[in-house]
Specification:
The protein has two domains: 69 residues, no CATH class; 134 residues, no CATH class. The chain has five helices and five strands; from the N terminus they run E-H-H-E-E-E-E-H-H-H. Strands 1-3-2-4-5 form a five-stranded antiparallel beta sheet. Strand 4 and strand 5 form a beta hairpin. The longest helix has 46 residues. It is flat and about 75 Å long. The N and C termini lie far apart (103 Å). This is DUF4124 domain-containing protein. Keywords: Coiled coil, Signal.
Length: 224
Amino acid sequence: MFRVPAIVAASLLLVMPQTLLAQSSGKAADKKLYCWNEGKERICSDALPADAVNHARDEFSANSGLRNAQVQRALSDEERAAASTAAAQVQLDQMAEQTRQRTEQAMLTTYGDENALRRVFAERQEVLDNNLKTAQYNVASLRESLVALLAAAGDRELAGGKVADKQAQAIGQRHAQLQSQQRLLASFEQQQQALKVEIESSLQRYRQLKGLAPVDVPAQTPAG
């Protein structure tokens, strides 16, 4: 493995195709050149070290010298949790919009009774219930893990030792993950309440369209 700074890497890429023509075509086709940043320094190598796997990097073909891939850096635990939250929210928002469209456009012609209308919401309710249970489990698990980490750190300090940087970092990361899951849980709980209101509102609208709900008549003032 060789590692070179960016100024050398640029020259290397320019002369690489001519140099590699003299090598066997089978070996050249399999080789890559990886380039990534370490602080302010640009590093290029024909092998990717283990400590650079999670870095953002460019991958160049050793055969042509052209970039053929651009790999983003690995996400942190907190970023993965945020992405999961966003994906779950997008799924629920899409399902909510689809449900509203179906109920408004075909409420009278599609649903013969209230039970048929209720089934439209059943899939959304199931997804939301599953997300809620998962978030509840994650909160309980992360809280238990955080308590264990804090207890270990406390025992270390009581014994006259110092909490290691790695241990303190793990506590901070676990706390951030717990807060993220708590926000997600609160969001799902709010959505569950909103869905109940939406279901009841749709049922009332359905009854009105079917002529099943009594019309509120304004109270009349008795003649004096």
